Amino acid sequence: MEFAGWSSTFRSSPFFCIVRSPQDRVFSARSACSAFNVVVFRSDTVILPILKYGDSVLLEPARRVEAITSDIERLIDDMIETMYAAPGVGLAAPQVGVPLRIFVVDPSMGRDPAALIAMVNPEFVSREGMQLEEEGCLSVPGFNATVVRPMHAVIKGLNRSGAEEVREGRELLARAFQHEMDHLDGRLFIDHLRGIKRDMILRRIRKLARAGKW
Length: 214
Known about the structure:
214 residues, alpha+beta, Peptide Deformylase, five-stranded antiparallel β-sheet, four-stranded antiparallel β-sheet, 3 helices, globular
């Protein structure tokens, strides 16, 4: 992943990255989950590599977070920084190689601090209506498609302090909720497509992969 002078590379495991700043300072980070015997080593918030379509971590349902530890809080911080750097409206933990049920969203893309939402173990309370809008995905860069999403959605989950929260979203936020919840269930927006549009995207991805550009 490259953005604004930063570069990231994987080393042996999807949970490990080296992030090199323009000043050549190097930070190493591991995903935050004691359940997977993984420990975070960091000296500051880092921008994590975002997995692309085809990686097995993106295809499996994520696991519930058993406890919100300091490592989980740091993971959330890293996810927020990664989302803004991409830039994107939302990011789920599986997209950075961590198979846990966590996502962050900010439909304002950083313009409104109150719009930032971090949810742990989220569940839908209700979904209503329908909207058809074009959307993309940080794990499928360069591709967009029109996907059916709910017009209104209510979710509940834990905030980063471990308290239960209920959040309501309409239009863009409802779409973001559904998009990130799909990631936690091992689905991407491509999986909602059918026919020529889906085939065209998959053919182009395979071509990019063969050329070493994916």
